[in-house]
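Design request, tokens follow.
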């Protein structure tokens, strides 16, 4: 029971209430005699405690957590002072919400106990080499040690993977608290030198494709008419090499 104090011909505003509450009023004459009290019931139609969702509870140093309040209310009162339906938080703490419509006020609802778990640096991938030089060759890619989860662009989940085909590869890592890194820089694995095809013209040796090559062509001595042809050595490091 709460007494009502108001002047003659003046109204009365209740304090903030969360449930239906009875108030009592009486009037006094000039001699100070009070009338019989009259009950005035402030009826509250209670709102259901709001349901709150979030996209996570971990603050990993580079991210925010979004907490979502229910739609359809005229007023949103978050514990951090914000007043929108959804809020983004970057600090550790418990966040709660009270919602209002035109007639009622809800109970407070805790939506997220957000915790800081530390940021995870972008991983650097180590490769024992970056070229596949022949059929059956392999490249070993290794992510940093000490993480609880690995996500390679190949779909593999081990710290180190074996590559047998050319392409671009990257990885993400997750620490023991559940914080996930950004994706590493791509590491490119390409093919080594293609076996050249060498052909000889009248005065030239031609290599396809053009690669830096070094080889010796030996020819036996033989006679042409009254002339003897000596052995010829040809060294070349270019696409077209003239016979010496």
């Amino acid at each position: 029971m709460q007494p009502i104090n108001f002047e003659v011909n003046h109204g009365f505003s209740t304090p903030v209430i969360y449930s239906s509450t009875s108030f009592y009023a009486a009037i006094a004459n000039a001699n100070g005699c009070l009338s019989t009290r009259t009950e005035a019931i402030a009826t509250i139609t209670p709102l259901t405690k709001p349901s709150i969702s979030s996209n996570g509870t971990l603050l990993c140093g580079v991210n925010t957590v979004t907490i979502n309040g229910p739609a359809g209310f005229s007023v949103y009162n978050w514990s951090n002072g914000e007043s929108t339906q959804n809020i983004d938080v970057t600090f550790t703490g418990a966040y709660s919400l009270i919602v209002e419509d035109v007639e009622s006020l809800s109970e407070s609802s805790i939506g997220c106990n957000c915790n800081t778990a530390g940021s995870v640096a972008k991983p650097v991938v180590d490769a024992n080499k970056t070229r596949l030089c022949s059929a059956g060759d392999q490249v070993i890619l290794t992510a940093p040690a000490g993480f609880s989860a690995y996500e390679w662009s190949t779909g593999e989940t081990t710290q180190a993977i074996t590559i047998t085909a050319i392409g671009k590869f990257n990885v993400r890592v997750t620490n023991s608290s559940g914080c996930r890194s950004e994706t590493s820089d791509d590491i490119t694995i390409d093919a080594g030198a293609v076996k050249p095809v060498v052909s000889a013209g009248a005065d030239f040796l031609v290599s396809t494709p053009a690669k830096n090559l070094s080889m010796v062509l030996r020819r036996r001595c033989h006679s042409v008419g009254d002339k003897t042809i000596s052995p010829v050595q040809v060294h070349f490091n270019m696409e077209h090499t003239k016979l010496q």
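Comment from the thread starter after seeing the answer: thanks! Residues 210-224, 234-244 have pLDDT under 50 and may be disordered.
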